[in-house]
Amino acid sequence: MMTNLFSGFDPSSSILALSLNWMSTFLGFFFIPYLFWGMPSRASLGWSLIMEALHKEFKTLLGDKEKGTTLIFVSVFTVILFNNVLGLVPYVFTSTSHLAMSLAISLPLWVAFMLYGWFKKTQHMFAHLVPLGTPWTLMPLMVLIETVSNLIRPITLAVRLSANMIAGHLLLTLLGSNGPHVNSPTIMQWLMMGQSLLLILEVAVSIIQAYVFTVLVTLYASEID
């Protein structure tokens, strides 16, 4: 039962199917030309408003920098959002439910922030290891705690995203697998209603998790300056 339950997260044992599964990660890019180069529509206008709102928020978190600085964070949000939402479509592989994908996003960003901070602003990075007002007797312990907290940041980002995606898909799988065994029409109606509500909740979770991931990455970048 557990093997069948988690089989939806298994890419495939076939090399061809494995490559096609991971290629679904780039399905979202097919929508981008339509949103930016297509005829004006409510969808493109709504997406432009969302991007502008995200730019303003990230600009505030980063300390009112140039617009180009927020481009990478808006791009990260877009990639995660498209993969989270497309993963809810039947028979579409959810790449963000795998640590290989979520770590591939969080780890390079964290490494880039650390290299820039320690090479360009070494004193500032050392100052971050000891919070202001810390007693001198607790300074060695605080340095250790802050160092460990800093080192596990990419792991916590990746695990948070993957765990939330897996949890929602498991609930949908559990409800869907019980459908063929239900004989009562009334129970079937309630089951379909519950699955529909859960699907709406999962769409909201997909948006929220993309937003949380990007905001945390932006906050980590703002600590360097």
TrEMBL record:
One GO CC term on file: mitochondrial inner membrane
Compartment(s): Membrane; Mitochondrion inner membrane
Gene name of this polypeptide: ATP6
Domain of life: Eukaryota
Protein name (Swiss-Prot/TrEMBL): ATP synthase subunit a
Family: Belongs to the ATPase A chain family.
Bilayer-crossing regions: 15-37, 71-93, 99-119, 126-145, 157-176, 197-221
Keywords: ATP synthesis, CF(0), Hydrogen ion transport, Ion transport, Membrane, Mitochondrion, Transmembrane, Transmembrane helix, Transport
Gene Ontology MF terms in the entry: proton-transporting ATP synthase activity, rotational mechanism
Signal peptide feature range: none
Topology of this chain in the membrane: Multi-pass membrane protein
